[in-house]
Amino acid sequence: MPPRLLQSQTNTAHTEPVRCMSIGPHSGRVFASGGNDRMLYLWAITDEDPILQFGPFSAPISCCSFSPDEDYIAFGTDNGYVSVIDLDSGHTLNGWMVEDTAITCITIHPHILDCVAVGDIDGNIYLFAGEPRSPIQVYNAHEGEVLSVQICPQGNLLATSGVDHLIRIFDIQKGEIFGTIHPTKKFDSPILCLDFHPSEKILAACAEDRSVKIYDINRVVEMKGGFVIGTQSPQRICFAPDGECVASCSSVTLSLFKTKEADHMDHMKVSLKNIRDLRVFDKGIAIAVSEECNVSLILAKTEDFVLMKRKKKKKKKRTPSPELLLYQVQPKKKVIIEPLPPLRPQPIVNQQPASNEPLFRAFREERGDFMAIITQRTSKYRKICDAIRDRGLKDACVNVATSSDSSVEMISVLLQKLDSINPENASAVVEVIYIGVQIDEDLALRLLRLILQKLTPVFRSAADNPQQKYFKDASEFKTACRGLVVLFNKHMENRTPGSSMMRRLMTEYKSFFI
Q1: Which CATH number covers residue 24?
Q2: Residue 158 · residue 170 · CB < 8 Å
Q3: What's the 3-state SS for 498-511?
Q4: Please, is 278 exposed, middle or buried when counting C-beta atoms within 10 Å of its C-beta (0-12, 13-18, 19+)?
Q5: Whose CA is closest to 142, among 173, 174, 120?
Q6: Which InterPro entries does the UniProt entry name for this protein (predicted)?
Q7: Is it the case that residue 1 has pLDDT exceeding 50?
């Protein structure tokens, strides 16, 4: 039977053209899409509507990529913003900003989930990790746009390709270039996509001249092969989970090849629009495609391809060894277990220091101070929770902001009660954050970031329409945010630990701070 394509339902949520898609590499049952409407959607193949949505962000989303376990997703935008989202909690795990550029491609490190590699429109490669807001590594890799970035499964090598027809490989553990693959006279065109072999140092690439090439990274040379496919350029390339085969897909052809035997190949005619992602699984091949604002997932069974069929191993009948047969016919012996001798009681030695020793006195004093602090904070938490219950969140925040007391405790409570923050009380919460920033920057900025992510769509729709329900609340919230600007500028001048986060928030949510 010839290979067949099975199309999942066409999904529509974007209001402007889709720019990027990513298929979950673990299950293949979820995929993400981002577009010019500045929204990021997460889809399940069984649902018509998105299961999660994020945004709108400050610029169109140009690229996105899942982590290997599908628990996180990273994305980049046209204004240089890079972020990793925890899909379980729906919160931003980390975010970074590259000034004056557009991000074109992105990938997550296979072992360090808050580490991402991105390429930009100017040929630069940035490696971000953890809290530092500046990249930990920067490479000027290409002349012109970077088209693909990939990190090997072992996590030590980074491969990039661009419009300059080059493939660069970097050792990110040493922070230096590992090798460069130059074009040949036969194959000389922009490299559109790369993929690493799951277990060996082999790299697959597809190019604009319709060629597919496989390289031995140990020697940085092309392996046997290098062939041209169909009439259109393959847009995506991907290894099978066992690495035995590699698949590529263009708008008219889905092709499979043996990794180390280039003469063995299988092709299938297709008719697809924009190929955004390609994944090969044990039981199927998934292709993410888009057309204007619509997205869909195309599936093909691997068993329909000759190269992907697995030979069933015949089970051999196991015959017991002569020793086992001899053991089975022997009569069972009665085993007698002798009782253990009784345990001798041991004297109990008091290991605690005497009450008159200096160590004991110091311990009691420090413990007393510690317990006093805990008791005081517990009392504040209790009063805050009672105030929220009796008077409402807005009045409780106004009281804390006026008294300049218990701001950190109030912020800690609000981080656990995010659902209770709404457009009507958000401005009062920002007043508490103003005081909290001066005491605990990290805690206060974390709450501010979550509020902005949650309420920005509501306030932006209400800001320009006096008839909207939250028009007055949007104005009050904007006024409260403007009150933070002077404080933020002072902290940024002093380069406090939270200054980079302040700068990013003021850039990403600029309309609230001007």
Answers
A1: 2.130.10.10
A2: yes
A3: CHHHHHHHHHHCHH
A4: buried
A5: 120
A6: Apc4-like_WD40_dom (IPR024977), WD40/YVTN_repeat-like_dom_sf (IPR015943), WD40_repeat_dom_sf (IPR036322), WD40_rpt (IPR001680)
A7: no
CB of 428 within 8 A of CB of 397?
Answer: yes
Confidence of residue 369 (pLDDT cuts 50, 70, 90): low
DSSP secondary structure letter of residue 382 = H
Which uninterrupted H or E stretch holds 119? strand 115-120
The mean pLDDT of 118-131, rounded to a whole number, is 91
- 95 to 131, 227, 441: CA distances (angstroms): 9, 40, 17
pLDDT above 90 (res 123): yes
Q: How many domains, the chain?
A: 2
Clarify whether residues 378 and 302 are in a common domain. Answer: no
93 and 170 share a domain? yes
Which residues pair with residue 411 across a beta bridge?
none
Angle at 404 between CA 401 and CA 405, to 5 degrees: 110
CB-based contact 248:255 (threshold 8 Å): yes
Residue type for 229, please?
I
Is residue 67 predicted with pLDDT exceeding 90?
yes
Look at residue 493 and give its three-state secondary structure.
Answer: helix
Residue 342 included in any domain: no
Mean per-residue pLDDT over the chain, rounded: 82
Find the mean pLDDT for residues 161-171: 92
Band of pLDDT at residue 126, cut at 50, 70 and 90: very high
Please, where are the H alpha helices in 35-100? none
State the pLDDT at residue 317.
57
- Map residue 513 onto helix, strand or coil: helix
Domain boundary (266, 286, 308) is at 308
Is the pLDDT reported for residue 326 higher than 60?
Answer: no
For residue 438, give its domain range.
360-513
pLDDT at 238: 93
**Residue the block writes with tokens 């060996």:** 200
**Is pLDDT at 360 greater than 70 in this prediction?**
no
What would the two tokens of residue 88 be?
A: 């379980």
CA distances, 407 to each of 256, 399, 455 (Å): 61, 10, 21
**Whole-angstrom Cα Rg for the chain:** 30
Please indicate, yes or no, if residue 506 is contained in any of the structural domains.
yes
Residue 333 lies in a domain: no
Q: Note whether 43 and 186 are same-domain residues.
A: yes
Band of pLDDT at residue 440, cut at 50, 70 and 90: confident
Give the single-character DSSP code of 438.
T
DSSP string, 181-212: E---SSS-S-EEEEEE-SSSSEEEEEETTSEE
Question: For the residues 12-35, what does the mean pLDDT come to?
Answer: 91
Cis peptide before 466 (omega within 30 of 0): no
Q: Examine the fold and report which residue of 291, 308, 325 is the final residue of a domain before the chain moves on.
A: 308
